[in-house]
Design goal:
The protein is 56% helix and 10% strand. It is mainly alpha-helical. It is globular.
């Protein structure tokens, strides 16, 4: 994981106690003119940073403070009276992925392994973006859009409200916040235009490539382990 973070320049630690104070990896004005400075600042401070502060206050001094964000997401749905902490953990994970999915001067054509997979699964970048727009507009109310690597395919999925994508549902390559506070100031009710702008002008293909390479490596290693175990079994019987 440390190597993955170094290559992707990930600035958001996994341990819940290390999420506060939260900080963006770029200036709030760096995503202009697509997303305005005021919109990014308010989004970050009023939603992401606040969720981090709430989560840290909740777990401080308890056994939960040693857990990662993903561990909290796995554990808290099964604990009575921890719904609020679960929601905060989802918000933190979602926003961590969202801010890293965008970069100043991003967009343009995909490259590297993600370009191959987008072409294999969608044909063209235009088809990929059109599919993302369609999925986003189907979400009634607030939610999230996810570009996921699952079953050797790139898929576009959505979740509603603050819910994060189930951790077993694949590797998240990119995330787009579909809550109105993410785009209304700059796009009003034009959610589809906002989604297109994210992929055409802001998307961080390097982040997607990094996460995809790790997913492919894990799959390769899993297959090697399975093959080795099968070989041992056959040699015994």
């Amino acid at each position: 994981m440390s190597l993955l973070k170094a290559r992707c320049q990930v600035s958001y630690p996994d341990n819940v106690m290390n999420t506060f104070p939260a900080a963006l990896a770029y200036d709030c004005s760096a995503l202009e003119p697509v997303l305005s400075k005021d919109a990014v600042r308010d989004h970050f401070l009023q939603h992401h940073a606040l969720a981090c502060a709430d989560a840290v206050a909740w777990v401080r001094g308890t056994a939960l403070e040693r857990l990662s964000i993903e561990s909290l997401i796995r554990l808290t749905p099964h604990l009575p009276s921890y719904e609020s902490l679960f929601r905060r953990a989802c918000q933190i994970r979602n926003h961590n992925l969202y801010w890293q999915s965008l970069q100043p001067g991003g967009g343009h054509a995909p490259w590297g392994p993600i370009a191959d997979k987008v072409r294999d699964c969608f044909g063209t970048l235009s088809n990929f973006i059109a599919s993302a727009q369609q999925q986003a507009t189907r979400v009634c109310g607030s939610g999230w859009l996810w570009v996921v690597w699952r079953n050797d395919r790139v898929e576009i999925r959505t979740t509603e409200n603050v819910t994060t994508l189930p951790l077993e549902a694949g590797t998240v390559l990119l995330a787009v916040d579909l809550w109105e506070h993410a785009y209304y100031r700059d796009f009003r009710s034009r959610r589809a235009d906002y989604v297109a702008a994210c992929f055409e002008k802001l998307v961080n293909w390097n982040f997607a490539n990094c996460r995809l390479r790790v997913a492919l490596l894990r799959r390769k290693r899993a297959r090697q382990v399975t093959s080795a175990r099968l070989h041992i079994f056959r040699s015994i019987v």
